[in-house]
Fold these 3 entries.
Entry 1:
Amino acid sequence: MLRFASSELSDAELALQGEVREFLARSLPRGSFAPGLGMAAARDQDFSRALAARGWLGMALPRRYGGSERGVVERFIVVEELLRWGAPVRYHWVADRQTGPLILRYGSDAQRERFLPAICRAEVSFSIGMSEPEAGSDLAAVQTRARRADGGWRVSGTKLWTGGAHENDWFVVLCRTSDEDDRHQGLTQMIVDLHADGITVRPIAYLDGSEFFNEVLLDDVFVAEELVLGEVGAGWAQNTSELALERAGPERWLSSYLVVEQYLRERGAADERARAALGEALAGWWGIRALSLSVARLLDAGQAPAAESALVKELGTRFEQDVLDAIWRLVADEPDPASESLFERLLAAAILGAPSFTIRGGTNEILRSVAARALRA
Amino acid sequence: MTQALTQAQAQALALLRERGPDPDAESALLGQWLLTQAGLDEAGGLVTVAPGSAHDSVALRGERLSGTAHRVPWADEAERIALLLDGRVVAVERAHVTIHPRANLAGDARDTVVFEDARAQPGAGMEPDELLMRGALTRIALMAGALDRVYEIAVRHAGERRQFGRPIGAFQAVQQHLVTIAQQAALAGAAAATTARRPGGFEIAAGKLLANRAALSAGRAAHQVLGARGTTREHPLGQLTCRLWAWRSEYGDEHRWSTTLGAAVARAGADSLYPAITGGSTVVSL
């Protein structure tokens, strides 16, 4: 049976929400920047540093590593406000969400000392090195291979869909270190310098022409022994727990939020059709947010709600697409990506971004299978 | 509009979610509540409420009531029938009316009540939406409870029923239906838990909207999982889905609640949109 328990925010949590809202209204007022759609927002290290200064990066990390030990729900509150505001979160996004907690859990003391304080200060950025040409949903099929070398490893292979590889500092690479009967064994995670010798980053143009995703070729790249993350051969379990950090957060249901808000700002809700679409959208967000928050509460309670997370991500990302379609239907004209109207630009960007909503971080088909394993009498 | 529930009302609401329709619980939450709000004596037996159908034709002249009210739950068993007429609450003794038994899609009593110059007890005034919201609150609880049971039935069946040499739950196509049911039951459950805690206008509107949508999609998915077996009169699934479909129309359909909710946030403006999602009725009133 699934564990969803709805809850209210405590007074302290509401106070944090108020602080973030006040900070955004003051330091990033509407009209002063080009808002982005959820995780696809702009990159701005100075903005990330400003968040860091308030203790809003690495919120789940211990104080001795520069974190603020505030837990999953409080990070949820901060992230939710940043995303719905369209704030430039890209510089710190991966490091704050998953690499920091991953290194805290599996990293050596030296790795923690080296990376965690820098993550909390927004001085280091990370990409994700999971997917490959022959390993998409079936991640255990990775072919990137590391061979022992003097003082470390030599890594060769190709990573694909590596977001931000051209602009970030490091990526955590899942690679094969030995061949075993069980292909889930013999995998290892390594922290790899994106500027190391032997790395070639090739951009991949997305539907809208932007070049955020990359193909990363690793040709005999040297990785020092001290950059092996966790245990050699135990990469599969580590990677699975890393994926759990990617699921069910507010980024899985807020990608098209600003399209709706800006529609209301520019066009009002003059007719009944628009009011109905708006009401449906509100109810959807209200319900999905309650489920997403309950997953954050479970994580704070030390549980591992893999099935619940998968259910929420599957539901949330489909909702992001549905709500976008509902607003698109209200618009008679073809959306112009270069329109003077911010609403139209956001609508155009969201339409082109929408196919990835239900793919990134695990396709909906995979998520349904993950969730279904927990659906037993 | 947010009116906290008394302890007895909260218990009655929890009972609806756990056990399904119950005339006493509904009387406590709707009938007796309506009389209390109107300053009428709520003591005594079962009070049922005429929900107010578009086909109703009831008129109060002095203290006499004439006309017909439709879709009244368990009118025959009730001691009194309460109505909200032109913003005013009235109560009529069961003994003073004629009842034509009718039923909803699931066979539950939704009677037609005929008043012929019936002696009525007029009470204080009330906004019509207040009754609509109270009614919707009870339906959200009923629907969330029914969806929990639909989920259990579908999951159990998928694990037990074997076709092609294995349990049908081993097939991805069937698993996808189970996921839909689990998601929709979870959404309706969140709606019921939140509205029980905070029965504000925003929460009830959003909650009924979610419960209505869940009734349709989870019901459809569950019938696919159960196959022909779920379509018989005696199978528990059929009774649950028939009730879900009936409750979908009671106390506000999707159109009613989505336009009400949409109009409320449109009035509040774009800057209040996200605060409304997180704060509900503390930010936006319907």
Note: Chain A has three domains: 11-124, 128-235, 247-372.
Entry 2:
Amino acid sequence: MKTALRKTFVLGCLALAATCAGGTGYGQQPSATQARARVQLETLERLAARAEKSVDVSIDAGVLGLAKGVFAKPNDEKARKVAEAIKGLEGVYVRVYEFASEGQWGESDIADIRRQVKETGWSNVVNVRNRAESRTVEVHLRAADGKIGGLVVLSTEPKQLVVVNMIGDIDVQKLASLQGQFGIPEIDLRGDDDDDKDRKAETKPAAKKP
Amino acid sequence: MRFRKMIAGLAASAVLVSALSQHAAEARGVPGYDAAVKLVETYYKAKSRGIPWYARGAVGVAKVVSADARRVARYGNVKIAVFEDQEFTPGTAAEFGPALRQRLAPHWSRLLAVGGVEDGQVYTFVRRDGELFKVLTVVIEPRDAVVVQADLNLEEFAKLLANPEDESRALTRDATTADDK
């Protein structure tokens, strides 16, 4: 009889654990870090009506939690790099707006984003300006407790606007491996000086690829 | 004494089983494919054609082909509704997207929302279901619309996360078009 009771108790505990486990994941509350580094992007939604194309990718902590397991494949080098890059990530939010002509969006449309990344705790760490193409890229970081709490990439072109908000402890060195993943577009970080370098490089013979 | 313990143990188990059953019942009641189809029908006043996975050849929209075996391996438990040659005014995307999101909340997480003059609207929602990942994609184009719900394995889910727009379109394309191979 004792064995039966023990079995019943163990089964009960397992069932309770399963029930509790079922309640986590998608219903996760945002951590304090996430709450601080999450930028409100709702004001951008009005641009969708003016844009020729709008893309809104939202990967919250629950979905990202699933992704971490998926990308941690031991045999796939690219997947491993992505897994490394997203190790501390808690969310990825991407907004891309493409316009048919210039003048469809203005500074007032991104004023609220700028206001948020100027608040205490945020630092503007990258500023790329390419006057020839009227293109700018800004990277704003939020540091908390000696760790990166999140970042915002704001990329503007006359006919395109890209806002990427990543939340969590991000390894900036590995960010490049996330371009092209999770809906994050390739962002050209070449500025005016780099273009000059490129123009000089064009006169030299191309290096052989290994 | 032993009898009381046994009764108490059984009662505890019964409570847990009941809780689990309620959880399962809630899962059964999760809005998904049906809710999305209904919304497209009511919002755009359109009529859909549900296409059973293995009977698509009969309706002429898509043929059952040899590649179906491969697709079934990629996507399980597929449900498809096709709206053909009907009016889907693209200008209503600003209202339809939030309405769909509201219908599926809080059970589904929105992964993707695309709005485009030429590309139409694409909405993708995801939800964990045990070992599988349920994906619900709605594509609205000026004259056609498709609602697809499918179960993805880990590998397919990884592809979807890596490239949400292309993979969402691939899912609806694979589900509704014939493969000539």
Note: The first strand of chain B starts at residue 49 and ends at 50.
Entry 3:
Amino acid sequence: MRMRKLTLLLFICSISVSANTFVKGSPATTNNDDSCDIAVLPAATLLLPYFEVDFNSPQTTAMTTLFTIVNTVQQPQIAHVTIWTDWGFPVLDFNLFLTGYDVQAINLYDIFGPRGTIAPPYGTTNEIETGLRSLDNDANPNFIAASAANCAQLPGPIPVRILNDMRTAVTTGIYDYSCGRNVTIGGKHRNAAGYVTIDVLSDCTLTLPTQPDYYKELLYDNVLTGDYMWISPNSTTGNYAGANPLVHIRAIPEGGPAGVVTATELPRTFYGQYNPPANQAADRRQPLPSTFAARFIQGGPGAFNTHYVIWREGLTGANAACNDYARNGSSEMSVRSVIRFDEHENPTTLASSCLPLYCPNLTLPATSSTETGAALFPLISNSGDLGGWTSFDLSHSAANRSQNWVVVSMSAEGRYSVAFDALALSNGCQ
Amino acid sequence: MRTALLLATILFTAAAHATTIRNDDSCDIATMPAATLLLPYFEVDFNSPARTARTTLFSVINTSRSPQIARVTLWTDWAYPVLTFNIFLTGYDVQSINLYDILGPSGTITLQDRNVGSSSLPNDANPLFLPSAADACAQLPGVLPASFLNDVRSMLTTGRVASCGSSHLGGIHVNAIGFVTIDLVATCGITMPNDIHYYDELLYDNVIGGDWEIVDPNPVTGNYAGGNPLVHIRAIPSGGPAGVATETNLPYTFYDHYTPHQDRNTARMDRRQPLPSTFVARFIQGGTGAFNTNFAIWREGLTGASAACSAYSRNNGFDMVAIEAVRFDEHENPTVNSSEVRISAYQKTYVIFPSASSTPTSAGTFPPLSSSGDVGGWMYLNLANSSTGRPSQNWVVSIMQAEGRYQTAFDATPLGNGCSSTQAYTTNRPYPPVIGPAPNITP
């Protein structure tokens, strides 16, 4: 009798699996949040792969980057925002308390520019009133008890000294606040440049993703969505805008409290390099892919021209020393292969682009935006074509299938600009 | 006993984990090489000169070294297919099409030559091509005959064509409006997706990708451009020859209502992933001098294979009523169309969109702005219709523009994949059904 009950139990279990996942045939699953594919679907982590902010110019002409986050569920959420340099060093983090169905926009010019302010505090704390369809601000059972107090006071003006240090960190790579003046943790460029990650968390703390303790606070609910915009209002150098969804990185399996080790079938994860050694998949975030097909038009003055915006996983691990971050902007960040095809399918490679005194060897830091006409990329063929596409394998090496993301940004005539994700040729698990 | 419990644990655990790490093995719509590409909305002002005419362009890349044939079909906004042509893609080819070239004064479909690159295989090196492909693909499109071009223009602007008498096949608008599908096929023919014989030619290799741009060069009405990836719809399982009905675990498919329905396998013969029905779409509705938003919405029609001309009005009719739209402002205040607060069984504002449309978020079709003064927020769109017997398929693009110089276009976020079940109508009550992502496990 007991055996029969067990058989029945097993049979029920089998049905619970086979109703949505399949022993044979394809797809293996029709469930949500059950694959390695990076899709625009509610996620537990959002990645803004590249930002650029001209904080020295007045707002009327300053290039800036904005992003918006939406909480798609009725429960409140805590979105932990981390701003990284272009060499993958985290310079600033803050929390946005999202009431149920909340939407919160952040203009990075507000942070780096003269205001030096993270969103107005009254808009991002758990003190705010909820909407008619939203649950109360304490109605997320995955929040830890301390969050009630910790989320009551959220960001506002940034102290001047920290703001100045942040500005130098994202423009010169010098971050006196943490690293002194002799170590660089980012590249040199006129405008602030870097990338942003946004994670669902169980508390409003200032732990960084580079610290193993972060993975005791991280949550796994795929509930956030968002987009970003690059706006270039200067009528001489820009006069246009481009936008794209943020990269939506889902937790698989999703759900459950923070700090609990749950197995995942993902072979590696987005934050794998920072996870505690005892559980290198603690974040359960989908990994990003390494191979892409990215279209370009390189028409010269008066025509469309293209930048490739490329985010790359860095080499530094948890709690890395400041002087380690140079690795994320060094020749160690080489690219495995780049092939450019023109409109007549003529391929050019880095090897075929060697000049007598120069042979390009593509290395790209953790984030960058580079004109396709730059000498870094294979030369365009001599067919006369001005367009085509580029095949990227952005792995660091054959042995290191690192994570990457590519966005195609085209602009023309001081009035047209488009931005769209390049085609990923594989998911991040393959 | 212990073994049995362990087994049960393993089975439950397996259900909770990522059950596939393979490519092309889920219902998720991702920007990855696909077998079908959808341009969800196009608009072309073919009456104006090119320097001021709004137009739509798209590009298709063959990511494989084998040659491929892409069958392009232009549909009206009521999902009537008006024009089809083939793009022969050599290995690693890229082809761009400006719809103004086709619908404008030149009426020409211009494609690149077929010389292969040094990394590409020869043009006869795709073993899945039908024997007829060599001859059929030798002559590909050029200039459209004038009378045919006029018919195409008429169908895309007035919905009328002489061969369909008084029946409407599309809406009435100054500009040509519709959507485009691009499918991988085994030969160069002119069969269209609404013909069951199309599925004898369809191929299943996930190898093509692409993007689209809406360009509005008129400095008075536009002066900007927006671009986005095409919707990449993969064949699952991928591969294999044309005309073979291979089993798929997809519950239904993108071309489901056109495929032969002799049995389960033929009904899903296209093996294309289905598109979802619920979306989160952000808006800014700032008025003059600020950002304003249009939602470009593609919706699966109701007409089946070889439908009569008179049937296409259903694709803009009462049967296309969407389940609901809820607008949230920046303070999470929800609004619905006023008469959706049902004070009478007879009073209700229906949310109806045809198969392809672009509608300002300020239009009365959508719920009004709240009284908070906020001009931005997001909208929940449950676009499933009640006539399909399963969640109907949809796609939403949020297009924002401002100041005669900024335009952006990006996909709205689906709240589930296309295999998720229908989400029920929600209310202001905080208990189920509520707005949110579809369940992790498909019911």
Note: Confidence is low (pLDDT under 50) at residues 5-18 of chain A.
